[in-house]
Amino acid sequence: MPLLVSSVLIIVLVIAVVVVVFLAAIASRRRRAEQVAERRTAVAAHRDEAAARSRSAEQARLEAQERSARAERERLAAEEQTERAERERAAAEHHETQAREIDPDA
């Protein structure tokens, strides 16, 4: 009879060990799945942040280009205005010189 009890005890212990190992494997798999889900969430957050920063950088680049183009247009307009003013000054000097030449009282 003691042999039967010890055989049953060994079988029960083996089954208990198998159940514990099985439960540990399930718990480990569950933990791994949770970690993967957390990493996926973190990756999604990083990608969202990267996309937002990329959009912001592109918008800043376009605004800078727009300001640069506006400044270039203003520079060209100022040059044109300077040239026009110089022509007007030269024409005024020319007319003043002609007026002195023609003036009978001079």
Strand content: under 5%
Give the overall silhouette.
Answer: rod-shaped
Structural class from helices and strands? mainly alpha
Helix content: over 70%
Note the gap between the termini: 152 Å
Summed up, the helix count is 1
According to DSSP, the number of beta strands is 0
Give average pLDDT, whole number: 93
Low confidence ranges: none
- Reading the helices and strands in chain order gives H
Q: What value does the Rg take, in angstroms?
A: 45 Å
Describe the largest sheet. Answer: none
Secondary structure elements and pairings:
Layout: H1 2-102
List keywords for this structure.
rod-shaped; mainly alpha; 1 helix; 95% helix; 106 residues
Give a short summary of the structure.
With 106 residues, the protein is mainly alpha-helical. It has one helix at residues 2-102. The longest helix is centred in the middle third of the chain and has 101 residues, at 2-102.
